[in-house]
Amino acid sequence: MSVTGLPPYDPQNIFARILRGEIPCKRVHEDAFALAFHDINPLTPTHVLVIPKGAHVSAADFHANASAEDIAGFWRAVAQVAKSLGLEASGYRLLTNMGLDAGQEVPHFHVHVFGGKRLGRMVSAG
Ligand code: AMP
Prior knowledge:
By secondary structure, the protein is α+β, with helices and mostly antiparallel strands. The chain has a single domain (14-115), classed as 2-Layer Sandwich (HIT family, subunit A), CATH 3.30.428. It has 3 helices and 5 strands, in the order H-E-E-E-H-H-E-E. It has helices at 14-19, 59-65, 68-84; strands at 27-30, 34-38, 46-52, 92-95, 111-115. A 5-stranded antiparallel β-sheet has the order 1-2-3-5-4, with helices on one face. The longest helix is centred in the middle third of the chain and has 17 residues, at 68-84. It is globular. The model has no long low-confidence stretch (mean pLDDT 94). The structure holds adenosine monophosphate. Adenosine monophosphate (AMP) is lined by residues 14, 23, 25, 39-41, 49, 97, 103-106.
């Protein structure tokens, strides 16, 4: 286990394989810092994932260990993706699951961009 409670980075995780082009994705944006693609199981009318190019297990790992340039570039890409999806006027939600209690499934840091309808309450305790 790493200090974040997750195993060390696994280069065979599904998002690493998408980054290497080994598995297809419905890409919406790519730049030096990030790749964005539609979630395979969308929970809202627009549901896009944004992932950094670097090998980071989680939000904790990314923000502790990525360079300031990579962190800034990543978050700028997230905002650009939301804008390019036409979500700025109506609004959107950004979410990242970090570790066990949040139910993080894929061990490569990613941010969900949700939009396209009224999203309701922020957190379900159930
Ligand atoms: P999380 O629970 O935050 O780790 O979210 C992982 C997300 O990745 C889920 O919403 C899945 O639907 C999504 N996902 C898993 N595999 C793929 C894939 N091959 N392409 C696109 N999205 C995926």
